[in-house]
Amino acid sequence: AQSVTQLDSQVPVFEEAPVELRCNYSSSVSVYLFWYVQYPNQGLQLLLKYLSGSTLVKGINGFEAEFNKSQTSFHLRKPSVHISDTAEYFCAVRSSSGAGSYQLTFGKGTKLSVIP
Amino acid sequence: EAQVTQNPRYLITVTGKKLTVTCSQNMNHEYMSWYRQDPGLGLRQIYYSMNVEATDKGDVPEGYKVSRKEKRNFPLILESPSPNQTSLYFCASSPRLAGGDNEQFFGPGTRLTVL
Predict the structure, then answer these.
(1) What does DSSP say about strands B110-114 and B10-13: parallel, antiparallel, or unpaired?
(2) Do the Cβ atoms of B106 and A96 come within 8 Å?
(3) pLDDT score at B100
(4) Cβ partners under 8 Å of residue A9, min gap 6
(5) Taking 70 as the threshold, does the pLDDT of residue B99 lie above it?
(6) b/e string for B91-102 if b means 16 or more Cβ within 10 A?
(7) Of the partner residues B45, B58, B90, the one whose CB lies closest to the CB of residue A44
(8) pLDDT score recorded for residue B112
(9) pLDDT of residue B75
């Protein structure tokens, strides 16, 4: 079975400051990793994904994430946040093979609040 | 426009009254899935479908049914809704799921309240 832990439920940060949202996963097989964003009263939108290759992945809106296999982590970062980044962020994992390859498992979410 | 649509977007009902939430995608995707989102719990998968007539349980299937008679539609059925099924529901689809670059596209959500 696969699982995802998002270590912070809420992260307040001042505008133009850097931010890191933490995500750890567990799986007995290799995985694909995703970050989704949910703006208030909207559905989910894919920010970025790691499938294979380079461990540093760049996504939309200036976000990036780094896959660290030894630490089973996939932390999301942005060097300078804007008010418009206020949203809830979800980390998700899917196994690359086996029964878990048909299921996308989400973390509980991190609410990012950008303070003017 | 490529999209996943859900209807209704908002629904208030009473305990025990059967309801169906429809989901439709126009991208010819093989894989479809239903999730529920609850505060502090993130998204949890209810059911998924790998293709027509192929469905399987997710993590929280109790109290729900699904069917996949055609590729584009994947309705979620609550035969006898209860208050603990009050939640925000999302439908999603992807070209396929196993093996590779398959982004899931999400619908706009259905907010269900069961009194």
Answers:
(1) parallel
(2) no
(3) 58
(4) A108, A109, A110, A111, B40
(5) no
(6) bbbbeebbeeeb
(7) B90
(8) 97
(9) 98
